[in-house]
Design brief:
It is built from 8 helices and 8 strands; from the N terminus they run αααββαααββαβββαβ. It has 205 residues and is of the alpha+beta class. The chain is globular and about 50 Å long. Among the domains are: 56 residues, Winged helix-like DNA-binding domain superfamily/Winged helix DNA-binding domain (Arc Repressor Mutant, subunit A, Orthogonal Bundle), CATH 1.10.10.10; 69 residues, Ferrous iron transport protein A (FeoA) (SH3 type barrels, Roll). α1 packs across α2, α2 crosses α3 and α4 packs across α5. The longest helix is centred in the middle third of the chain and has 24 residues. The chain binds zinc ion. The site of zinc ion has 8 residues, from α4.
């Protein structure tokens, strides 16, 4: 059974990677039927966590503050799982969905301190979710050599593909743009990414 935090995490991710999120996105991402998502979002709306602007879902100011704490804890938990539990890079996002709920408040801060105050999660996303990083979203990159800054949309299928070609943070990649998609070459191979999903991959020179 998914809870409030799982929904908020997905809403945050979509907003961060693509600037908008709708019911169908949440339904696809969490593999939950649209009526169930609809019901749950009504509940979040009644609790004052989200509001709606047409089909688009937004955080209310207090919902956003709650989300900032959650995302921070999620990313700290990911560092822990990656470093100390040796969970593979591509699986770490899903595997901490349970774990992160255990680390609230002072436990979370103790974990952060003892991890050596990391700046980012294993996918390169800043522990402080409001920190603005210098980066180039993949669709805005010209053909050429770059480094991976982060993967803001931590979807397991995408993470697996990126891991298989070695395109993880700070690795060098080569970008070639076509009309319909982008060819990305990492240290271990080449893959194609379609334009909408490509927004979640952020690069630096
Ligand atoms: Zn992450």
């Amino acid at each position: 059974m998914l809870n409030r935090e799982d929904y908020m995490l997905v809403i945050w991710e979509y907003l961060e990677a693509f600037d908008k999120v709708q019911e169908k996105d949440i339904s696809n991402r969490l593999h939950i039927s649209p009526p169930t998502v609809y019901e749950y979002l009504l509940k979040l709306q009644e609790e004052g966590i989200i509001s709606r602007n047409g089909r688009n879902i937004e955080f209310t100011p207090s919902g956003r503050n709650f989300a900032l704490k959650l995302i921070r804890m999620h990313r700290i938990s990911e560092v822990f799982a990656y470093k100390f539990l040796e969970i593979p890079w591509e699986d770490v996002h899903v595997s901490v969905m349970e774990l992160e709920h255990l680390f609230s408040g002072s436990k979370g801060e103790a974990l952060y301190k003892n991890l050596g105050r990391p700046e980012t999660c294993p996918h390169g996303n800043p522990i402080d979710p409001e920190y603005r990083i210098k980066e180039i979203p993949l669709p805005f990159a010209d053909d050429g050599h770059y480094h991976v800054r982060r993967v803001s949309f931590e979807e397991i299928g995408l993470l697996k593909k990126l891991a298989s070609i070695g395109a993880i943070p700070d690795q060098e990649v080569y970008v070639i743009k076509d009309a319909d998609d982008i060819e990305l070459t990492g240290p271990n191979g080449t893959m194609k990414i379609e334009f909408p999903v490509a927004m979640s991959l952020r690069l630096y020179l």
